[in-house]
Amino acid sequence: MMFLKSLKKSPLSARIGLAIVFLNIAACILAPVVAPYGETQIVADVWLPSSSTNLLGTDQLGRDMVTRLLYGARNTISISLAITMLSFTIGIICGFFAAVLGGWIDQILSRIVDIIMAFPTLIFALMVLSVLGTSIPILIVVIAILDSTRVYRLSRALGMDIEVMDYVEVAKLRGEGLWWIIRHEILPNALPPLLAELGMRFCFVFLFIAALSFLGLGIQPPTADWGGMVRENA
């Protein structure tokens, strides 16, 4: 009910953006149900124009483009979500521990992050993936580690600001453990900016995967992916 009231008060651009998000989520969830053909099924001749059986025509192998778009949304969104969740888990835990513990732990973690961020992210990812391979688990782990550096910096900055607050000092005087302080005092107060960053990082990860697939080191054929579809049908 509160959500509907806030939605009515939100600007038109926000409602349009929310509708697009829900459409993509629906495509992600319902792709196997609403897609007219299988993800890799060859249904007709190659490069056919739009028709009653193939609304957007066929690709270079004779696969239905509508089906590939739906499955591409499903694959790209689900992998992007997995990467974003993993990167935030790594970044938040390391950032908060560095902020609270300080000392040599903070120095080591911060220097590692500085070294990783010194390289252009796309170049670093291309180099690592060309060595380790491009399977989906490796893709998720590599991009999540690279993306977690941004989350680490934000989490560390927030943690250092909150860690000096009176209620955190009181928790320390009560004898609360480090993990308890992070979970009950720091994380709840750092949540709003972290949630805002979560949405932005998801968008960046989505575009990053598409760029890697376009360059041939992302999601591999025959799995559908929007970046790979651009490369295959350009």
UniProtKB/TrEMBL annotation:
The record's keywords, sorted A to Z, are: Cell membrane, Membrane, Transmembrane, Transmembrane helix, Transport
Recorded hits in Pfam families, A to Z, give: BPD_transp_1
One biological-process term from Gene Ontology? transmembrane transport
The UniProt entry lists membrane topology as: Multi-pass membrane protein
Q: Which residues form the ABC transmembrane type-1 domain?
A: 73-234
* Protein location: Cell membrane
Q: Which InterPro entries match?
A: BP-dependent_transpt_permease, MetI-like, MetI-like_sf
Regions crossing the membrane: 12-35, 77-105, 117-146, 198-219
Q: Which PROSITE patterns match?
A: ABC_TM1
Q: What cellular component terms from Gene Ontology apply here?
A: plasma membrane
Task: Tell me where it mainly resides.
Answer: membrane
Query: Which protein, by its recorded name, is this?
Result: ABC transmembrane type-1 domain-containing protein
